[in-house]
What does this fold into?
Amino acid sequence: MAYSEDHIVLAAEYALGTLDADERAQVDTMMAVDKEFAAVVQAWEFRLGSLNQMVGSVEPRPIVWENIRAAIGLSAEPHTPPESAPPPQVAPVEMRQVRVVDQVPVVDNDNDNIVDLASRVKRWRSLASVASAIAAALLVMFGLQIYQPDALPQAIRPKPRIQTVEVKVPAPALTPSAQYVALLQGQGGGPAFIMTIDGATRNFTVRKVGATAEPGKSFELWLISDKLPQPRSLGVIGTGDFTARPVLSSYASDVVDGATYAVTVEQAGGSPSGQPTSTPLFTGKLIETVPGAASAPR
It folds into this structure.
């Protein structure tokens, strides 16, 4: 069985003989009912009892015998004990202090052996009582912080924890933008170019279908509207199958939606004056093929 520090100190005091009558009676009772505690007391008695063997006999100084004779009123003349009787041996008069360091007895030449150890035992008990009181107070405070924080003073109340929670909102569904198509065709009726416009970005793409440019010439695309004083060039159509341009973003929606788109044949690289130099060969107007958000209910 593991005993507390108080039990071990109590056993040491019992072995030293520093307990009062009530405490000795208590230890006697504990020893009678607890054999293991009795063994602890016997171990202390064994440790401390060996101190007598460590103290050798001391021959008293001559002045000691003279003081004894003077105290009992005998003559101060030297007295020689009878030869048949051995000289008296006086018990050691110097007390030696006993300290226990790591359970190993150490003997000092001091006169306060038992008192010093007893005072240390009392200090140990006091410290153990203070530590127990502090532990109990901390336990009560921690319990209040968990279950009843409002009962504590404001200075030692636990601070509220603020936790930021990030809520991810799904992105709104993409609304398809309107798509427009214009078939640019000539007098023969067959489409020469297909022009598509994205209603959100105003970017357009021209796909070459049946037109073939003459050597040294270029096809140029024009925007013609009654809201504009003159045709506006949208650039030269490339020699590949597809030509993409972003230039319509600078025009208003009503201009883009209601305009006529025309293709003329110009010199290589386009008209040098910024205006058509020939009659348009292919023309067409936009039609909505994919409705946007505004026109979907309609």
In short: The chain has a mean pLDDT of 76. Residues 113-147 form the longest helix (35 residues). Strands lie at 97-101, 104-108, 179-185, 191-198, 204-208, 217-224, 232-237, 242-245, 260-267, 282-290.
